[in-house]
Amino acid sequence: MLDLDHFSRFNNTFGHQAGDLLLQAFGEAVRARVRVEDIACRYGGEEFTLILPEASLEVTRDRAQQILEVIRELHVSHRGESLGAVTMSAGVAAYPEHARTGETLIRAADTALFIAKAAGRDRIAVAAAEERFRAPGEGALSP
């Protein structure tokens, strides 16, 4: 999961047309760094999902880092005025380390994204390992 940091600030300061230009530039930067088999899509608002089939956790994290660095160098102007520094936060999760289904994998990446944003933004957080399902009563601590 990828999220443009403080996107609403760009919209409020420069207007929605400038925000749209920023989203376009962000999308193009991401698209330039994906393989043919990868899926990059807008998930909602300023959030994007990048799905890398058959990619390891290490490859996925490296790709997120490459995109993070490119976004830091992104310069977008609207009506001759620079929109200023652009950063993003990312949450990374991989199958099967973090989830066993597509839905839980997205949730794990989204949780990691929330952690990256809470830790100060402009960074990547990797999801926690999936907690294995246990039978009722299994693994309970006794006093």
Uncertain spans: 132-143
CATH superfamily: Reverse transcriptase/Diguanylate cyclase domain
**Count of helix runs:** 4
Helix and strand run: EHHEEHEEEHE
Structural class from helices and strands? alpha+beta
How many β strands by DSSP? 7
The largest sheet has its strands arranged as 2-3-1-6-7
The pLDDT mean sits at: 89
Task: Look at the structure and give the CATH class.
Answer: Alpha Beta
Question: Which architecture would the CATH scheme give at its second level?
Answer: 2-Layer Sandwich
* Cα end-to-end separation: 41 Å
How many structural domains in the coordinates? 1
Percent helix among the residues? Answer: 25-40%
Question: What does the model show?
Answer:
With 143 residues, the protein is an alpha+beta fold. The chain has a single domain (2-126), classed as 2-Layer Sandwich (Alpha-Beta Plaits), CATH 3.30.70. The protein is 40% helix and 18% strand. The protein contains 4 helices and 7 strands, in the order E-H-H-E-E-H-E-E-E-H-E. The protein has helices at 7-14, 16-31, 57-72, 102-118, and strands at 2-4, 39-44, 47-51, 77-78, 81-82, 88-92, 124-126. A 5-stranded mixed beta sheet has the order 2-3-1-6-7. A two-stranded antiparallel sheet has the order 4-5. A hairpin with a 2-residue loop joins strand 4 and strand 5 (81-82). Helix 1 (7-14) packs across helix 2. The radius of gyration is 17 Å and the shape is globular.
List the helices and strands and how they pair.
Elements: E1 2-4, H1 7-14, H2 16-31, E2 39-44, E3 47-51, H3 57-72, E4 77-78, E5 81-82, E6 88-92, H4 102-118, E7 124-126
Parallel strand pairs: 6-7
Antiparallel strand pairs: 1-3, 1-6, 2-3, 4-5
